[in-house]
Design a protein that fits this description.
alpha/beta, six-stranded mixed beta sheet, four-stranded antiparallel beta sheet, 8 helices, 18 strands, 28% strand
Length: 359
């Protein structure tokens, strides 16, 4: 579609033997400007599963428009701003306007699943297109009035807990070791992490570290069997001043207490672990340029914030690229009936276009 519209496209594929194409695509658009620097808008191609279909008003994979909104899985996260960035760049081409900096759009492969084949792959690639004096915006988080510019993120620790006991008949619990019961007690005990890591920072929303049990795998299929194995997961978002190694140490200590109490074995592994890098400076050029563009388009005074959610901006910050995360969104990402306001899509395209005019 981009090529048909006359937009220059480059593709850098990351090898992935698990899929039929043997690779994951990363798409790069570049429109030359007057100076050597570039202004980048980076969005991601992938989406999350729809979750429980009964909570959707329609097929999550067939978009529909109602009351000025587009509905469907992925329309806000991250397709709203992918489309907005494309139309902002396309306007410059159609109007034959030469931007100050080169316009750069990047659509990366797998933001929702640890970014193995996306931005980190590009940053290590010989054709890495980014420079540390570029303006880089990741529109993958925001709020309803567009007044939040994310410059910092919490550390991320996603953990898998496998509790191994001994299966037995439901009427004879003394003959087994109930893995589900032990795991349930561990879930309760892990809430004590909030008191062990109590610091707050008003830059972040929410201001404290969070430790939440999330996914639960099925164990036995029938009611009258005590399970010998149980698996659950936990999502930890930790303020940057706490080393994740300290969190690990406390969790292992809690698990050891449960092992001794219930006679079970608990295996703990991480599915994602990112120690938060230093934040982007609140007076970095990308932040100041964004504030000006947002004020011009939306008439609001945007302020720097920190968030608990993880975005690919963390990978930029780890490599000392100043980056800001911004979008005006309805905040329905990952929810049933995910939707985006068409007005936001148009308005955000104007913000991106205003950025492309900035020196």
């Amino acid at each position: 579609w981009l090529k048909e519209k006359g937009v220059p496209v480059k593709q850098i594929d990351a090898p992935d033997a698990r899929v039929s194409s043997a690779s994951r695509p990363n798409v790069i658009v570049r429109v030359p400007g007057r100076t050597q620097g570039s202004t980048w808008i980076l969005t991601h191609l992938d989406i999350v599963p729809p979750g429980e279909l009964k909570f959707w008003n329609g097929d999550p994979y067939r978009r529909y428009v109602k009351d000025g909104r587009i509905y469907g899985r992925g329309v806000e996260d991250n397709q709203q701003d992918m489309v907005a960035s494309i139309f902002a760049a396309r306007a410059f081409l159609e109007e034959r306007i030469e931007p100050e900096r080169s316009i750069g759009l990047v659509f990366v492969a797998d933001e929702e699943t640890a970014s193995t084949y996306g931005l980190p792959y590009l940053l290590k690639h010989p054709d890495n297109p980014f420079r540390r004096d570029d303006i880089i915006v990741v529109p993958d988080s925001g709020n309803a009035d567009g007044a939040a510019i994310e410059i910092a993120e919490k550390s991320i620790l996603w953990l898998r807990f496998k509790t191994i006991g001994k299966q037995c008949h439901g009427s004879r619990p003394e003959l087994g070791r109930n893995a589900f019961l032990a795991a349930s007690q561990l879930v309760i005990d892990l809430q004590g992490l909030h008191k062990l890591f109590p610091a707050t920072d008003p830059l972040y929303q929410p201001p404290a570290s969070t430790f939440q049990p999330t996914k639960k795998e099925a164990n036995v299929p029938n009611v009258n069997t005590i399970p010998g194995e149980d698996v659950f997961y936990m999502d930890c978002r930790v303020l940057p001043q706490y080393p994740l190694s300290d969190v690990w140490s406390r969790i292992r200590s809690m698990a050891k207490t449960i092992e001794d109490r219930f006679g079970v074995t608990i295996e703990i592994s991480s599915t994602q672990e990112i120690q938060a890098p230093p934040p982007t400076s609140s007076d970095a050029p990308v932040v100041l340029s964004l504030q000006k563009a947002i004020a011009d388009v939306y008439g609001v005074e945007a302020v720097p914030i920190g968030v608990g959610a993880g975005t690919v901006a963390a990978f930029f910050r780890q490599e000392d690229y100043p980056v800001a995360v911004w979008s005006k969104i309805t905040q329905t990402a990952h929810q049933p009936n995910e939707n985006c306001l068409i007005a936001n899509m148009i308005g955000n395209a104007k913000v991106f276009a205003r950025l492309f005019l900035s020196p």
